Amino acid sequence: MTFIEEMVKIAEDWQEQEGASAIDVEAAVDYALKNKLYRRQPPSQRELCLRDMRRALQQVKFVDAQGNEVRAKHALRIMGEQMVLPLIVYVDPRTAKPDLMHEAFKQNLDAIKNDVRRHAIEKHSYDLNNIYNATLPLFDYDFNQVAEDAMMTGEYDDTYEPDDIPDPEPTEK
């Protein structure tokens, strides 16, 4: 059983035990820990630092000449012929060469397109297979107006957290 399958089984076991219609992750985690079902080793200091640094680089912003608050660092995945995993570097739009920024924006847009593909497939699957024989309304995947509005206002919601682990408190040196 893979790690993901194991985690889903624990969550579904909690759901069945509680007779819940949805999975409350915090309650399922408490159940897993109480019953010693989760045995993963805690991350090393290096892994924690890597996660925290990536999160910080993803969230740092600056105000551009037009008054827009924009990201100061953009992730860029670099794959070499001899590399098993990509090297992820962060480029600064204030100083990065156009080819690097273009590739960073392209990679980001490719990820958005993939999210749309996943969304469309999952919505379609629900429409075809849900126990209520319901068909949900269509979603509009044309984001051109959203992009135009954002360029006019300079506003967007960037509050998504990649995980639910709170940021550590600042330490004094």
Describe this structure in words.
- A hairpin with a 5-residue loop joins strand 1 (61-63) and strand 2 (69-71).
- The chain is 48% helix and 9% strand.
- The radius of gyration is 21 Å and the shape is extended.
- The protein is built from five helices and four strands.
- The chain starts with a helix and ends in a 20-residue tail after the last helix.
Task: Record the SSE blueprint.
Layout: H1 3-18, H2 25-34, H3 45-59, E1 61-63, E2 69-71, E3 74-78, E4 87-91, H4 98-129, H5 144-153
Antiparallel strand pairs: 1-2, 3-4
Helix pairs in contact: 1-2
Write a compact overview of the structure shown.
With 173 residues, this protein is mainly alpha-helical.
Give the helix level as a range of percent: 40-55%
**How many beta-strand elements?**
4
In round numbers, the mean pLDDT is: 91
Total DSSP helices: 5
> Which descriptor suits the 3D outline?
extended
Strand residues, percent: 5-15%
Radius of gyration: 21 Å
Gap between N and C termini:
45 Å
Task: Report the structural category.
Answer: mainly alpha
For the sheet with most strands, the description reads:
2 strands, antiparallel
Strand order of the largest sheet: 1-2
Task: Supply the key terms.
173 residues; mainly alpha; two-stranded antiparallel ribbon
